[in-house]
Amino acid sequence: MKKSFQIGSAFVGLIIGAGFASGQEVMQYFTSFGIWGTAGGILATILFIYLGYTFAQLGTDLQATSHKGVIYHIGGRYIGAILDILITFFLFGVAVVMFAGSGSTFDQMFGIDTRVGSIIMVTLTILTLLLNTKKIISIIAMITPYLITIIFIILIYSIFTMDLSFAEADALAKEQVSATGNWVLGAFLYVSYNLAAGAALLIVMSGGVKDRKVAGMGGILGGAMLGGLIILIHIGMLVKIDVVAGADMPTLELANQIHPAVGILMAIALLCMMYNTAVGMFYSFTVRFIAPDSKLYKPAVVVIGLLGFVLSLAGFTTLVGKVYSTMGYLGFALIIAAVIAWIKKGKAKYQ
After folding, report:
1. What's the confidence (pLDDT) of residue 43?
2. Which end of the chain is least crowded, N or C, by CB within 10 Å?
3. Per-residue pLDDT averaged across 82-96, rounded?
4. How do the domains of the chain map onto residue ranges?
């Protein structure tokens, strides 16, 4: 169970990233639909649990050391090749987004120049990737409980200081900008673009586990924690929508409402999540081409990290808009391919 929880926590830490923890993604994909956003959160939880379980077990079955083998197994020779290329590209793209996001956070909260903030994150990421795989997973997993604690504090504060009725909160929430036309599509698109990147590291993590039940449980726990966090953040923002409406970082706004010290703790949590995501994405990207025990691995980590820093200078907002929107549609293709592979697996089992 300990190993399953570690896999699940690392999966959560990888996916959360900057937009999730800040509340901006949850606002656009869930809270902007008002009370119905809660139903979207439940649907997203179910999808994360099922897909986390599926990808984790596939990783164990194939003893994957990179996502390539599993993606080809899911999509076949031709579709698998396309998915492999696209996922590999977006792993790098999301890591670059995290570098840019950390620069913006350092600037907003601590007055540190964005380039200096990005350099700090790039340096930490490179140093982490020079460690072995087990240490990387342990570091990523450790930060998740800290974020969950901060989110719980914000949720409890929000509920007990709510000034609006649910009808008023619902009406005001629906005035916010939505990423999609309805809550069902919002839930599917949110899960799809997160899995497009997150599935790669989950596959690699599970590849080092011999027991497929342990790996599958890790995927289930990770999916349940992700879904739970979505619902908690959504409810916290919905009941305080009069406070967070229009804010770039809603959860940070709520944290500052409680006390400036809590705001700083939340900012640290945001940076930790960006670090988690950058480490996970860059590791998955690098091992796609170079084995962790290869002599070329460490030099490649340094070169790729420096390249990521240069590209991050394009800016956080610009990168999010271009990278994340495209990833959503890639994720749909990945989910469909995984479901088909799961159905085929089930049929083969009973024949």
Report:
1. 96
2. C
3. 81
4. 2-338
Q: What is the CATH number of domain 2-338?
A: 1.20.1740.10
Residue 350 pLDDT exceeds 50: no
Q: What is the pLDDT of residue 234?
A: 93
Residue type, 322: K
What backbone phi and psi angles, to 5 degrees, belong to 240?
-120, 35
Burial 40-65 (b: 16+ CB within 10 A, else e): bbebbbebbbbbbbbbbbbbbeeebb
Distance (Å) of CA 231 to CA 26, 37, 44, 88 = 9, 9, 9, 30
- DSSP result, 90-112: HHHHHHHHHHHHHHHHHHHHH--
Give the C-alpha distances (Å, rounded to integers) separating 254 from 35, 248, 272, 329.
19, 12, 18, 32
Over the stretch 254-311, which tens digit does the pLDDT of each residue have? 888 888 888 888 888 888 878 877 887 888 788 888 888 888 989 999 999 999 899 8
Q: Is 66 helix (H, G, I), strand (E, B) or coil?
A: coil
Instruction: Tell me the one-letter amino acid at 228.
Output: G
Alpha helices in 161-259 (DSSP H): 166-173, 183-207, 212-238, 241-244, 250-258
Which residues does 159 contact at the CB level (< 8 Å), separation at least 6?
235, 236, 239
The predicted model scores a pTM of 0.78
Name the burial class of residue 113, with classes exposed (0-12), middle (13-18) and buried (19+) by CB atoms within 10 angstroms of its CB. exposed
